[in-house]
Structures are given as C-alpha cells and as structure tokens.
Amino acid sequence: MLEVKNLRGGYSGREVLHGVSLEARAGEITAILGPNGCGKSTLLKSLCGIVPAASGQVLLDGQDLLALPQKQIAQKAAYLAQSRQVPDITVGRLVLHGRFPYLSYPRRYREEDRRIARDVMEELDILDLAETPLPRLSGGQQQKAYIAMALAQDTDVILLDEPTTYLDVSYQLQFLRQARELSGSGKHVLMVVHDLSHALETADRAVLMRDGTVAIQGTPEEEYASGALEDVFGVRVVRVQAGGQWHYFTMEK
C-alpha cells in the first residue's frame, strides 16, 4: 500500500500541494485527474522526492520514502516526466539508464542490467531500435523508449506523467493494456492522464484534484456517480455500456 499523508510542497516558496492525502494499492492503476494547474505533476514529483515536500509523509508498506536517500527512493519508485530533452544517445543506452540506481562505484552495467533492458525493449516492441539514436525516432517511438527506461528501473511504484503523450491511438491503447498487465504483476501504478475517458476506463481507482487538494478519490464508478467530475472539469460526463464495460464521454454542459 502506498499512503500519502497530509503532503504539502511546491516550488520556490510557493505551496502547490495543500495537505494531499491519498491511497494507492499494489496491483492497481490509480489515475490522477484534474484540470491544468491543479498540482497533478507536482504531486508525482513530490512522491519520489524530485520536488521536496514541506511536510507530510509518503509511506510504502509503512516505510517513509521521503526519509530515504534519493538513490534508495529511485530503487522503489520510478518517475517518467511529461516532457524531456532528447539526448543524442541510442535507445538501448537510454533504457539502461533505468538501471542506474542499482549500480555501485565504479558504475558499470552488469549482465543482469543488460538482460532487464533487453526484456523491457522486447516487451514494448522496440528491441529492433536499440542501436538507433533517439533524435532519429518519431515522437511516439521516443515516448516508448522513455517508458521502457522507467520499466527497466524495476520498482514497486511507477509514476507516469501523461505517458500516452505523442502516441497515436493504437499505441495509446497498447500502452494502457500494458499498464494493466504491469499493475497485475503487483506494482503500484500511478498515472496522470489527460484523456478523461481513457483514465476512467483503465484505472481501478482515481484521485480527482482541484487547486492542490484532493476533491474525491474512489473507483471511477463512484466518482462518476458523485458528480464531482462534472463539477471540477465543468463538462458533462456520460457513460454507455458496451463490450461488458462502461465507456465514458465528455461534452459541453
């Protein structure tokens, strides 16, 4: 269980998170929802210590992550940012960067690290791009390479900020399926998802944020029934059942 208790923090003395508390369970996908500027990305960065918390706790199975050195945090929580620079290195070298928290001095990759990187690239169907420099790839291929780097970190917690950005529709659906498989392996998967329909149809639980606080958290069905989604986003949310599951749509009020 990942428990966030009364987390406060922000940037340059400006508080963005105002006492955020939430729970995310192993084996589930937790979607972080909310309008632009509500603190979603700041929350993910605070959970893994990239943005220092002013107060509060982040407990993973009772252990306070924020009390650990950054290297140990990186062995427990992997973070994939929404936007990144594109270094002039190969896909294989980028994915290997996910193994960096496990290296001792002198920092040399072990056969285990190379095996894990290969397995992840094969799983994401980019092994044939291992020797290709990142700048030569499409935006979608670059995104898959960065996702592979996060998965190669092999952590109990995976924090993904808009992971389907730059992916076309087929790759978006493929990634969401892989995210479910990943959570099914017992990991805590927390995703900031811009597409409300994808989030509600994929997540086991959702945390709806507004102005740096948690407006509501629960299952997608509970959040839909509460009317909080319509209140926070200012849209009408409707759903239809097809293929044995609910599908959500948004429209103007």
Summarize the structure in words.
- The protein is an alpha/beta fold and about 250 residues long.
- It folds into 2 domains: about 1-75 and about 155-250, P-loop containing nucleotide triphosphate hydrolases (Rossmann fold, 3-Layer(aba) Sandwich), CATH 3.40.50.300; about 85-155, no CATH class.
- About 30% of the residues lie in helices and about 30% in strands.
- The chain has helices at about 40-45, 70-75, 90-95, 110-125, 140-150, 170-185, 195-200, 220-225, 230-235; strands at about 1-10, 15-25, 30-35, 55-60, 65, 75-80, 155-160, 190, 205-210, 215-220, 235-240, 245-250.
- It has a 6-stranded mixed β-sheet with strand order 6-7-8-3-9-10, with helices on both faces. Strands 2-1-4-5 form a 4-stranded antiparallel β-sheet.
- A hairpin with a 2-residue loop joins strand 4 (about 55-60) and strand 5.
- The mean pLDDT is about 95.
